Amino acid sequence: MGPVVVVTGVVTGIAPGIASASANGAGAVVFRSMNWQSMISWRGYTVLVAMVCWAGCIHTAAAAPLAAPPLETPRAIKVGVLNAEPFAIPDTAMKWTGYAVVMFEASSIHARVVPEFREYASADALIDAVASGEVDAGVGNTLVTSERLERVDFSQPFLDAGLRVMVPSEKTSSFFRVIDGLVEGGHARVLAWCVIGALGLTVAVSLLLRRFDREFTPHLHEGLAESFYHVVSVALTGKTSYKGGVVPPWIGRVIAAIWLLFGLATVAYLTSMVTSVMTVDVLHRQISGPKDLRGKTIGIVAETGGDTYCSEQKLDVVRFKTLEAAAQAMIEHQIDAVVGDASILEYYDLKHPDVKVNVVGELVQRRHFGFSFHRDGTNLREKFDIAILALRENGTLDQIRQRWFGY
To answer: Rounded to whole angstroms, how far apart are CA atoms 196 and 192?
Structure first.
C-alpha cells in the first residue's frame, strides 16, 4: 500500500500543473506564469518517472528465474576392497562384485563419486590403509567395532551380522542310525549273545530231532532251517507246528513254557532297546539354535567368529579350512552342525540347493557390517549415510539382500 499512496500523491501534485498548461497554452509563458506549487508539481513528475523506472527494474529482476546451481561433478575416490565371498568377489575381468560391492556402487551414484578399487589381503590391512589415508574408503565384510571406530569412520550399517547354526535338513536311513546307536550304547554285545543262543538252540533241536524222529528230514540244510523256524516260533509266539513225539507231552509243555518266557523277555528287551536308541537319536539330532549345541560335535572354519564363540563356550569342535569342507563333513555325519557367520551360511545355502542343509536359530553376538572411511574432514561418510538410508527407504537395499542371501 505504501508505493501506491506515494504514486497517487505524486500524480495529484502534477495535475494542477497539467491543467494550467492546458489553460494558458504551451511555451515559455506557461513556465513564467507557474507559481511555486507548479514547480513542486514538476519536481513530483520527475520523482514519478524515477520511481516508475525503479519499479520496472525490480519487476524485471523478480521475474527473471534464478539459475540452478550446477550438479556436483562425480569425483574419483580410492576404495580398498577385501576379497571375502559373498561380500566382495573378483571376476575374471578383474572387476569386483558381491553384496558389499554392489551396495557401495549403488550408494556411490547418490554420493556422486566414482570408486576405484584396489585389493587388500586382510581386514586389518584394509583398516590400516583407510586410517592412513592410503585409500578413501574400505569395502568388505568389515565389522563395526569400538576399536576400529577409534581410527576410522563407519557408515550406516548395511547388514546385520551375527552367528547362526547350519544343520542337515535330510535325515539318513533310520536303520543305519539305529545300528550306530546300538553299537554306541553297548547293546551290540547283548544282541550277539542272543544270536549265538538262537543258533545253538537250532543246532541242538536239529540233532535231537534227527536222533529221535524217524520222519525228520535227512538233509542237513533242510533240518537246520526247520529247527531254526521252530526255535523262533516258540520264542515269539509260544507255539510250534511240529507234531512229532520226541519227548513226553508234559516235558514238552514245561520246555515250551520256559522257552516262551525267555522269548517274551528277549522280545521286550529288543523292543525297548531299539525304541530308546531311536529316541536318543531324535533328541540328539534336534538342533534348533546355539542353545542346543552343548554335547554335540560342532564344525567351524578356523580363525573366524564361530571359532571364537565355540571356544568361549567350551564346545566340542572340529576345525576346517573352508565352509565347504565343514558342510561336507556334516552331510557325512562326522559332525552334528556348523557354526558360522549368518550371512555366509545363508549365502552357502542359497548357492548350493543340492546340499540339503538348513540355517536355524536366532543371531548370537549380533554386530553390524559397514563401510569404513578415512577421516579427512570431507563429508564423504555423510553422503554415504544419506545414500544408504535412501536405498533402504526405496527398497533397493532389500532387493540386493534378496539377490545375495535369499531373504
So the answer is: 6
